[in-house]
Design brief:
alpha/beta, five-stranded parallel β-sheet, globular, 280 residues, four-stranded mixed β-sheet, 9 helices
Length: 280
Amino acid sequence: MLDRSIKVLALGPAGQPSAATLSAQDKHWEIISIPDLLAAEALDLKLLCLDSPQGLPLVLVADPGDEMSSRVAPHLARKARALALPTLALLARPPATADSDYQRRARWALAALEELVDAPVVLNGHLDGAALGHLLEMLSTGGLISLDLNDLRRLLRRPGQFVIAAAEAHGPDRALQAARRVLGSLARENLDLSTAPGLLVHISGSIATLTSDEYNAIQEEIYSLRPDDEGEDSPAFIKFGLHMNDALGERLQVIIAAIGPTLDRVKSSPPYPGESHGDR
């Protein structure tokens, strides 16, 4: 269960499926549909965000190539910046097969949003509501060790493709199984984990069951694949978050947001070593 609320603006037709996916997750975020320019003009961001805890971003979900979203997203981002509201944008990278007008609008909107938004997250392909849900849970869940917008901004300064995935496991070997499943998901997205310059790792479990040994086992599994170098300018930035969530019961959850180079291989690549799917 999320401890703090967050506002999500779903812009235009492309943002609606993502909003529906988020709404179905029944979490502590508020989804506001912005179907057209008129709705965007009528929106009072200052009033909307009065009950948002300080530090949590206003989230824009948009397809920058969509005619309406390409104009509304930068407009709302400017309004948010004028009000000193932190912002995160989940954006779809335009496919190579898109027509020239779509490509032109997307290039313009992406360039504008990269200047206006604190954390512009660009996904390959369509907007993924599940991916946004994982990201919001990572950022808006308080914990013993929190991950916040500044951590995401530091991750996004690294070059490469952004990917996020989550996995759960239960049983005596649940820590390693959850870690290996989520690493396997990232590998199937063609991310070269061995050279990825940035990882944010969010670990959740109930206070009655999550142990320090499990936390350490997940760290060791990730460091065995991608060693960390200390320092702000390090080529590898890895940070762990820890949250006690009694709603998970006997399950343990790991969410990883990563950025890095991609591999030239097909999606049906072999599973991550040690990954098991028998204990969902």
